[in-house]
């Protein structure tokens, strides 16, 4: 993948708007309604009008409900780009990639990318939203399910246990990620969980799927997030500081749980990370902030290894080293609290926080050095991965 560092800034795609609805246990609204509000907020944030939008990319979570009819709900006419995209937690990065390519190729001028979901129901548990009743596989998948593996908790737990057996990674090391991200969340007024936690709290939280405690697992949220992608020259004249999209890449290793599979040992980040950095024309050492997909603490650890922030198998040592991940650390990771403590909007959680940091609008949690940011998305059981390199 070639470098885009020689592409003039005025031609390079940039994120010019960010729209976020209320998120969490917000009831009485459909995913489509959340999506429409998020797009309107993103357009307003950029200082544009809906009539300026000529591209729309939509995505829904497991609850569904967001589709191409969002164009009509928003009253958008004569779009030059319209598509529904789905690669699970890697979708946000993929959407920005497609929007950036369309803008730079002249296929569209202003593209809105939106994700929304509303799986939570009043009176039911958050766990039920992503519970085993949603997973009724047939064929080979059905055979696996008869052994008790059903739903993401069990499969990610299996991946984490394999890493532990291979490299000696411990539950307490995973807990360090949860503790660091909660420290960031304490500084984020948008975060759902802001009370400080320590390793003892992590270890004493109930077991969900061994080796995962409750505090290893992300929350479930209703809500929506949208971003506006346009050309750099246009973004520079709009209401917000533009966030340039320097590089991107995807990797889709798949996951069949076949014999000798590498589940838990390597992810698509190992391919997508270096490719995105090469496109951006920067090195990993240049990255100031990493906003990493964190459906589980283990996802963060494996992504850090695969991007190259440490050697394979040394993720546990890295995350447990004092003064690395948390506020004031040498490698700020998931500075808004992530999906573990802040809000769960699939890949739009790390993307939205990266935009806020790049703009310098993060308030008490603002990282002083925020010129280059790495954003990851993970979908399936490490089956899909997307990487973005953003710049202030």
TrEMBL record:
<dbReference type="InterPro" id="IPR016039">
    <property type="entry name" value="Thiolase-like"/>
</dbReference>
<protein>
    <submittedName>
        <fullName>Thiolase family protein</fullName>
    </submittedName>
</protein>
<dbReference type="InterPro" id="IPR055140">
    <property type="entry name" value="Thiolase_C_2"/>
</dbReference>
<dbReference type="InterPro" id="IPR002155">
    <property type="entry name" value="Thiolase"/>
</dbReference>
<dbReference type="Pfam" id="PF22691">
    <property type="entry name" value="Thiolase_C_1"/>
</dbReference>
<feature type="domain" description="Thiolase C-terminal">
    <location>
        <begin position="250"/>
        <end position="391"/>
    </location>
</feature>
């Amino acid at each position: 993948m070639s470098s885009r560092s020689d592409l003039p800034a005025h031609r390079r795609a940039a994120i010019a708007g960010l729209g976020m609805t209320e998120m969490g246990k917000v009831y009485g609204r459909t995913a489509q309604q959340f999506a429409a509000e998020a797009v309107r907020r993103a357009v307003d944030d950029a200082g544009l009008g809906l009539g300026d939008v000529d591209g729309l990319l939509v995505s829904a979570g497991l609850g569904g409900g967001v589709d191409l009819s969002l164009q009509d709900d928003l009253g958008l006419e004569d779009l030059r780009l319209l598509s529904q995209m789905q690669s699970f937690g890697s979708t946000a990065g993929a959407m920005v990639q497609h929007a950036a390519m369309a803008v730079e190729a002249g296929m569209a001028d202003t593209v809105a990318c939106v994700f929304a979901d509303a799986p939570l129901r009043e009176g039911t548990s958050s766990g039920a939203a992503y519970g085993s009743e949603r997973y009724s596989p047939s064929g080979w998948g059905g055979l696996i399910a008869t052994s008790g593996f059903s739903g993401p908790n069990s499969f990610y737990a299996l991946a984490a246990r394999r890493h532990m057996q291979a490299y000696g990674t411990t539950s307490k090391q995973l807990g360090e990620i949860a503790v660091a991200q909660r420290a960031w969340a304490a500084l984020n007024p948008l975060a759902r969980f802001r009370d400080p936690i320590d390793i003892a709290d992590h270890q004493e939280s109930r077991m969900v799927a061994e080796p995962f405690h409750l505090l290893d697992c992300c929350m479930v949220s209703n809500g929506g997030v949208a971003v506006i992608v346009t050309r750099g020259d246009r973004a520079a004249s709009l209401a917000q500081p533009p966030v340039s999209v320097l590089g991107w890449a995807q990797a889709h290793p798949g996951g069949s749980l076949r014999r000798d599979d590498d589940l838990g040992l390597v992810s698509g980040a190992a391919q997508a990370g270096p490719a995105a950095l090469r496109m951006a024309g920067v090195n990993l050492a240049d990255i100031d902030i990493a906003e990493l997909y964190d459906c589980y603490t283990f996802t963060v650890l494996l992504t850090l290894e695969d991007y190259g922030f440490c050697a394979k198998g040394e993720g546990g040592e890295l995350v447990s080293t004092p003064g690395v991940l948390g506020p004031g650390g040498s490698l700020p990771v998931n500075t808004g609290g992530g999906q573990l403590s802040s809000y769960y909007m699939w890949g739009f959680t790390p993307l939205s926080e990266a935009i806020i940091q790049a703009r310098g609008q993060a308030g008490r949690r603002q990282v002083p050095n925020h010129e280059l940011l790495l954003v990851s998305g993970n979908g399936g059981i490490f089956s899909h991965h997307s990487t973005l390199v953003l710049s202030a």
